[in-house]
Write a structure and sequence with these properties.
This protein has about 210 residues and is mainly alpha-helical. It has helices at about 5-25, 35-40, 45-50, 55-75, 85-100, 100-115, 120-145, 150-175, 180-200, and strands spanning about 150, 205. The protein has one domain: Tetracycline Repressor, domain 2 (Orthogonal Bundle), CATH 1.10.357. Strands 1-2 form a two-stranded antiparallel ribbon. The N and C termini lie far apart (about 55 Å).
């Protein structure tokens, strides 16, 4: 990679990472380009060179973290098969979010803003479709390995249910008073997910292509 391009990517990444922490602690409205520049110890002009508005920085920061999460999650799941593929994908999501509350807060904020801002809504839709699409693909593989079938609507509903459970459980972890460690909490949630997958499989019909 060209040295100049490598430096440019490093600067862009630094801006996004600093911005994520400010957005999470101060909110979107109170996080200005100037504050981001001061925290990153670079000029405001340089921040503007990469991102013309703080809103654009927020959108790109959330997208940047999501793409990183997606890469790490798929890499983790690739080593497994069947139900364990879904379990490990969710486990990696818990590890990434619980290990960095700033990321969760920014994702939660982007979801909230999606109700009033089309740009945020488009990002929310992209994340939703990407997540449910990946889990749906793993679910299809899971069913195929067990020689059973479910409708595409069933698979989609399963994926949406898993996403909603992930979202709700993260909300509970960060915003309620409890004494559970991230590791213990993750194991509790994954145990529930395993039961959910067992129930999903138990209601499936045998595949016509399955050999007796």
């Amino acid at each position: 990679m060209d040295v100049k391009l490598k430096k440019s990517e490093k600067t862009r990444k630094k801006i996004l990472e600093v911005a994520m922490k400010l957005f999470a602690t101060q909110g979107v409205d109170k996080t200005t380009t100037r504050k981001i520049a001061q925290k990153a110890r670079i000029s405001t002009g340089l921040v503007n060179h990469y991102f013309p508005k703080s809103e654009v920085i927020f959108l790109e920061a959330v997208r940047y973290v999501f793409e990183d999460f997606k890469t790490k999650t798929r890499s983790e799941a690739r080593e497994h098969v069947g139900a364990e593929k879904i379990i490990q994908a969710l486990k990696k999501n818990y590890e990434l979010f619980l290990g960095n509350p700033f990321h969760y807060r920014c994702f939660a904020t982007s979801y909230a803003y999606g109700a009033i801002n089309k740009k945020f809504k488009d990002l929310h839709t992209y994340i939703f479709n990407s997540f449910t699409g990946t889990i749906g693909k793993y679910a299809e593989e899971y069913l195929k390995l067990n020689g059973v079938v479910r409708t595409k609507d069933d698979i989609h509903d399963l994926a949406v249910g898993i996403l909603e459970e992930l979202d709700g459980s993260l909300l509970f972890f960060f915003f309620t008073d409890h004494k559970l460690s991230a590791k213990v909490y993750t194991e509790i949630r994954l145990t529930r997910l395993r039961k959910k997958l067992e129930h999903f499989l138990s209601e499936a019909k045998p595949s016509q292509n399955r050999r007796p």
